[in-house]
């Protein structure tokens, strides 16, 4: 193999393979996408119960305190801190009860207390709660010991959210906790960004849809199902356009149809340099090719571009390459399109307990299983075979092991970067 050290695009030590020379590195590819995409601006008002995973379109301040009133964190007795004994015991008279939702209406004077349950509003005059286990009750009188502190077991008004406080900024993805937080503010309708429509299809003469018989040489189209799952998780509106054969005219027609009805178009397969790989040339004839080669494994022939008003992502056909390029490029792009605040993937270092095979040249996204050992250490191990056709490796993995382009083989025990799927 001839080395071309005069080539200015790649440092010599990452230029071992001539197919790498015009590849963008992963960081540059991410930047190119990030600086191209403009977020959608259209908003819609939807019911709170339908808003999980949607992106808030407006900032939100708390209109009132949550909780609205100081209340008890324990079942016990609401008392005045001035009545707490410093040394001996003290007897207090129970003058009523405060249940959650049924406050005590009166005022509590010196020497008095109120039976109170968790969530019960603190009666006027009281500022402290004694746990029922720490009071001895006889009739209407309780006896308490010293050692209590003023204000204990009280949840102040506004402790969770203070009136006027900013609760959410536009761009927040609504989680299960957020649904509850919004409900605690009495919000029943939220303003969110319109869901992007994402059309996708598979390319390949060998592909059969599930339900069809498999003829010789054919395989089932798995990418369309993987992608459907990924798109639903991302929170866009997926539009499944089926399988398109490896014919340039059919591909062209399918791309035009897809771009006409979607904000983004995703294809799988046909982006390599084989005789039946027409995607890049067809894209070039219809729209713009931003780039078509990334220095990563799996996923080198990932293609990014535009057809009319739709963003285009051409993912390689091997099932692991499809997923790896989706996670690394498409998902962040769609999240940006949805107006979601930027969020770099969660990535950290852990020891890798298995040796990993790697050739210098491309950044690799190997499949790993993060786990906690009996000794309590978090480590990662390889799922085994790393062929980009082995979809099972993605099913078993819970993270990518991210290996820098320049690295070669990795010895067991080496600290490696991992990206948990949950943080992607
Ligand atoms: P390609 O990128 O079209 O050259 O495809 C690379 C490899 O991925 C080939 O072995 C294809 O058969 C396989 N492949 C492509 N598309 C799919 C798909 N939708 N489902 C499963 N395998 C696929
Ligand atoms: Mg193909």
Written description of the protein model:
The chain is an alpha+beta fold. Helix content is 18%, strand content 28%. Helix 1 (26-36) packs parallel to helix 6.
Topology, pairings included?
Blueprint: H1 26-36, E1 43-47, E2 60-61, E3 71-72, E4 76-79, E5 90-98, E6 112-116, E7 128-131, E8 135-138, E9 141-144, E10 154-155, E11 166-168, H2 176-184, E12 189-193, E13 197-203, E14 207-208, E15 219-220, H3 223-234, E16 237-244, H4 248-260, E17 264-268, H5 279-286, E18 288-291, E19 296-297, E20 303-307, E21 310-315, H6 319-337, E22 348-351, E23 363-372, E24 378-382, H7 391-396, E25 399-403, E26 415-420
Parallel strand pairs: 5-6, 13-16, 13-17, 14-15, 17-21, 19-23
Antiparallel strand pairs: 1-12, 2-11, 3-10, 4-6, 4-7, 5-9, 8-9, 18-20, 20-21, 22-26, 23-24, 23-25, 25-26
Helix pairs in contact: 1-6, 3-6, 4-5
The chain binds adenosine monophosphate and magnesium ion.
Magnesium ion binds next to loops.
Compact overview of the structure:
This protein is of the alpha+beta class. The protein has helices spanning about 25-35, 175-185, 225-235, 250-260, 280-285, 320-335, 390-395, and strands at about 45, 60, 70, 75-80, 90-100, 110-115, 130, 135-140, 140-145, 155, 165-170, 190-195, 195-205, 205-210, 220, 235-245, 265-270, 290, 295, 305, 310-315, 350, 365-370, 380, 400-405, 415-420.
């Amino acid at each position: 193999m001839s080395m071309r050290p005069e080539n200015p695009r790649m440092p010599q030590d990452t230029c071992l393979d001539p197919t790498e020379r015009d590849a963008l590195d992963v960081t540059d590819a991410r930047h190119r996408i990030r600086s191209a995409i403009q977020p959608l601006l259209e908003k819609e008002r939807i019911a709170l119960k339908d808003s999980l995973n949607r992106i808030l379109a407006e900032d939100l301040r708390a209109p009132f305190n949550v909780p609205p009133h100081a209340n008890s964190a324990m079942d016990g007795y609401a008392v005045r801190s001035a009545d707490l004994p410093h040394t001996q015991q003290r007897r207090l008279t129970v003058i009523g009860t405060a249940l959650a939702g049924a406050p005590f209406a009166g005022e509590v004077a010196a020497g008095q207390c109120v039976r109170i349950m968790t969530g019960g509003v603190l009666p006027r005059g009281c500022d402290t709660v004694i746990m029922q286990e720490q009071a001895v009750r006889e009739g209407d009188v309780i006896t308490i010991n010293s050692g209590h502190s003023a204000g204990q077991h009280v949840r102040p008004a506004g402790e969770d959210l203070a009136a006027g406080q900013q609760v959410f900024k536009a761009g927040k993805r609504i989680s299960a906790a957020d649904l509850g937080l919004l409900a605690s503010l009495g919000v029943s309708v939220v303003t969110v960004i319109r869901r992007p429509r994402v059309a996708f299809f598979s390319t390949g003469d060998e592909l059969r849809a599930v339900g069809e018989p498999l003829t010789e040489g054919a395989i089932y189209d798995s990418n369309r199902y993987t992608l459907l799952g990924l798109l639903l998780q991302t929170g866009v509106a997926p539009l499944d356009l089926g399988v398109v054969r490896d014919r340039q005219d059919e591909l062209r027609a399918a791309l035009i149809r897809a771009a006409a009805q979607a904000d983004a178009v995703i294809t799988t397969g046909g982006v390599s340099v084989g005789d039946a790989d027409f995607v890049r040339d067809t894209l070039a004839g219809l729209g713009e090719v931003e780039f078509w080669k990334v220095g990563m494994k799996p996923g080198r022939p990932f293609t990014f571009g535009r057809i009319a008003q739709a963003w285009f992502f051409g993912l390689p056909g091997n099932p692991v390459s499809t997923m790896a390029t989706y996670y690394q490029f498409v998902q962040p792009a769609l999240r940006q399109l949805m107006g979601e605040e930027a969020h770099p993937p969660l990535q950290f270092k852990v020891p890798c307990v298995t040796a990993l095979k790697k050739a210098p040249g491309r950044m690799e996204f190997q499949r790993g299983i993060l786990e906690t050992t009996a000794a309590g250490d978090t480590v990662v191990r390889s799922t085994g075979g790393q062929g980009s056709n082995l979809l099972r490796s993605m099913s078993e993995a819970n993270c990518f092991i991210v290996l820098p382009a320049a690295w070669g083989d990795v010895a067991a025990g080496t600290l490696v970067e991992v990206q948990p799927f949950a943080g992607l």
